[in-house]
Q: What sequence folds into this?
C-alpha cells in the first residue's frame, strides 16, 4: 500500500517513506490538562488515531510508536491549583483521567507513550540552556523565547518570510 501524505514544506502530496519501516514514529502534541476537553481538543487525537491505525496496518502494530504528551504544568494549572487550594496533581490527574475517558468514548486508541511535561523538566531545561548558549533563544522577564532570527529557515513550513513577522509580537518590548 502506498501512503500519500501532504508535505507542509513542499505543499504537495508525496509518498510516505519512513526512514526505518521497522520503527515508524509519530509524535503529537497532546492536551494541557487544566480543564476538561472541548471538541477542538478531540480533533488531533481523532485525526492522528486514523493515521496511527493506517501506519499500524501497513507496517505492523509493533513497528509503529506513537507518542502524545500531556502538558501537566503551566500558568493556568498553577493558577487553578492556587485558586482551589489543592496540589497541581489533583487538577491534572482528574483532568487527564476525564480526557482519557473522553478519547475512549471516541474509540481513539491509546498511544504507545504518554509522557508528561513534569517527568521531563530537567531535559527541557537542558535544551533551553543549550538554545540560549547557542544564541537560538533569549531570556526576558516574561520567559525564554526562541530567536527566530537565529534560524534562517524559520517560517518555511508556514510559508511566511521572517521579514513579514512582527518583532515583539509575543513579548512586549522583549522580542528579538
A:
Amino acid at each position: 500500500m502506498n501512503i500519500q501524505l501532504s508535505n507542509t514544506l513542499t505543499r504537495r502530496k508525496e509518498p510516505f517513506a519512513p526512514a526505518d519501516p521497522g520503527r515508524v514514529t509519530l509524535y503529537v502534541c497532546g492536551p494541557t490538562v487544566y480543564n476538561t476537553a472541548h471538541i477542538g481538543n478531540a480533533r488531533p487525537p481523532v485525526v492522528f488515531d486514523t493515521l496511527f491505525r493506517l501506519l499500524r496496518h501497513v507496517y505492523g502494530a509493533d513497528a509503529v510508536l506513537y507518542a502524545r504528551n500531556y502538558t501537566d504544568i503551566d500558568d493556568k494549572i498553577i493558577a487553578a491549583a492556587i485558586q482551589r487550594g489543592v496540589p497541581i496533581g489533583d487538577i491534572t490527574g482528574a483532568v487527564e483521567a476525564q480526557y482519557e475517558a473522553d478519547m475512549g468514548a471516541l474509540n481513539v486508541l491509546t498511544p504507545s507513550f504518554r509522557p508528561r511535561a513534569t517527568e521531563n523538566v530537567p531535559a527541557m531545561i537542558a535544551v533551553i540552556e543549550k538554545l540560549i548558549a547557542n544564541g537560538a533563544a533569549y531570556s526576558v522577564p516574561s520567559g525564554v523565547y526562541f530567536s527566530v532570527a537565529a534560524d534562517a529557515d524559520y517560517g518555511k513550513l508556514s510559508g511566511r518570510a521572517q521579514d513579514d513577522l512582527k518583532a515583539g509580537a509575543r513579548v512586549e518590548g522583549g522580542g528579538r
Summary: The two ends are 46 Å apart (CA to CA). The chain has two domains: 16-119, 120-176. The beta strands are 4-7, 12-15, 24-28, 64-68, 137-140, 143-146. The CA atoms of residues 49 and 108 lie 6 Å apart.
